[in-house]
Structure to design on (142 residues):
């Protein structure tokens, strides 16, 4: 399992797949079931910079980057819009991505995943460039 959270100066917010099986927010204050997402490394090897990945939610749905920039968690099958690329921004040495590394996530429409307001609001896939709001920390859980 992997959980993502957006960094924020005064607080940390976890990415949440809401109970409507559609909305993705960055407003979780604790890492409970809805904040845990299975990160699927599509090449099956070590998770490294540039790998194609998918995110599977507690509600048994994939994240899906929509052409209008919305990020939804409502797909039961993985296709192009449910495929992302993960990039290491900082953290451990080497290209392998490990727990606590900072990452960026690029959606199917070549837009970065963003935690609006640097956390506490919606998560979307609509940014042309990666900055602080488009940077997450990967936390592995058991």
């Amino acid at each position: 399992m992997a959980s993502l959270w957006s960094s924020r100066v005064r607080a940390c917010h976890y990415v949440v797949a809401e109970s409507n099986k559609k909305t993705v927010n960055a407003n979780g204050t604790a890492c409970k079931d809805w904040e845990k997402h299975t990160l699927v490394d599509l090449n099956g090897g070590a998770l490294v910079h540039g790998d194609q990945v998918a995110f599977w939610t507690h509600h048994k749905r994939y994240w899906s980057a929509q052409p209008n920039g919305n990020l939804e968690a409502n797909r039961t099958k993985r296709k192009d819009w449910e495929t992302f690329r993960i990039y290491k921004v900082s953290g451990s040495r080497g290209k392998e991505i490990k727990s606590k590394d900072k990452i960026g996530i690029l959606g199917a429409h070549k837009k970065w995943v963003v935690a609006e307001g640097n956390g506490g609001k919606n998560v979307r896939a609509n940014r042309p460039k990666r900055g602080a709001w488009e940077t997450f920390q990967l936390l592995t859980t058991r």
Remarks:
- Residues 2-140 form a domain with the Trefoil (Acidic Fibroblast Growth Factor, subunit A) fold (CATH 2.80.10.50).
